[in-house]
Task: structure prediction
Amino acid sequence: MTQPRSAPMPASLRPGRPRHPAYDHRCPHCSAPEKARCTTISGRHTKTAPCPARLAAWATATACCTTCQVPQTYPCHDNGRRRDDVHPARYTEAEETAA
Result:
């Protein structure tokens, strides 16, 4: 006999650890939407942690960089040359902002 369908459990009642705040942003690497886990490029497997590109996008959107003195939403740079990633100080600042 099959079980009757029920309403999905609200996220506030789900057991487990809280999700990383980077999941509130779309992943530029694997194109995973907001609130969804990152996947491999083929899209067949989900990852247990966010992609480094998603973490960098989250840090860029939420924190100012204390190393290169750029405001939120601006990418980090080294002497005028744009970086592909963000400075470690920006990750620290973003984590403090999220906490």
